[in-house]
Write a structure and sequence with these properties.
single chain, three-stranded mixed β-sheet, 2 helices, alpha+beta
Length: 107
């Protein structure tokens, strides 16, 4: 099996955000892709989707040639989670609340 990481040139070399949250998500997605891919490849791709001032929206995608997930299960598994209101810069979220969405991170 081949494991590929593809980072587009427009992605900034450093961003501000929650590295633990991002690491947790990417390890989970890439780990599942590797677990269910006996042959072929797993690719983690990063691209910049939008940039405004000091903010950049990054898109992380994981593709594999594994067994796949039935369409009816995909909506349940991959539902988007977003925070309605972000805390002020430097403030942490209230205990038990969802961490900030990676789309709110700034460069």
């Amino acid at each position: 099996m081949e494991f590929v990481v593809s980072i587009m040139p427009e992605v900034p070399p450093a961003v501000r955000g929650d590295p633990h949250y991002l690491r947790q998500i990417l390890i989970n997605l890439a780990g599942n892709a590797v677990k269910f891919t006996e042959r072929g490849s797993v690719t983690v791709h990063v691209s910049a989707q939008a940039e405004t001032g000091a903010r950049v929206r990054l898109k992380f995608s994981v593709r594999d040639t594994g067994i796949g997930i039935p369409p009816e299960a995909q909506a349940r598994i991959f539902r988007a989670s977003r925070r309605a209101i972000s805390p002020p810069r430097g403030a942490s979220a209230a205990p038990g609340s969802a961490p900030p969405s990676p789309s709110s991170w700034s460069a």
